[in-house]
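dude i think i finally got it to work??
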Amino acid sequence: MTNSHYKSFSFAFFYKIIFKSWEMVVGPDLPKSEFWLCMVPTLMATLAVPFYAIFNHLNWNIWQLIIATFFAFDLFGGAIVNVTQTTHRWHHQPKHEFKYHFIFVMGHLHPLIIAWLYSSSNWSYFVVVYSYLLGATLSILKSPIYLQRPLSMILYLGGLIINTYLFAAIPGLEWFLPVYFLKLLVSYLPQSSESSFS
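look at this
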């Protein structure tokens, strides 16, 4: 295999991985209108976070800047894209039952990283936030379909109370918990059609 063929193969291989990973997250055949509606505000938020930290002299190191930027892309983007018809239909197809959704939420260990890197290893922050997330997730998934949306909003408001009254705001990350809970509890979890988890 020549060097040019090797480069072409490598590019095609990694492009396929990225494309397939993208489809697994947002679903196949996301229309351009939904894509840009999600992508523009997501990129604005993603750029705003590191710029805010730099211009306000928060003294974040390079890893803190990178991770906060990634979290902004993931959470703002997820909060928006999860309510599009394409992505909602993809994640809530009949074969995706209780285990799929619970594991999806469990994988969002962001508060662990926040507690470690931005909150002086305040582990109570992680324990309270993550425990609340898992308890809220169980409550929503085990509720009748017609109650899931109002219940998700009630639990989201509970998350805002945790954010406002239990922990001091982390400079540069004041947005984190409201958007974290919005993405998972309100945008992602509630079902839009009848399905049964057992």
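DSSP finds nine helices and no strands in the chain.
im so relieved honestly
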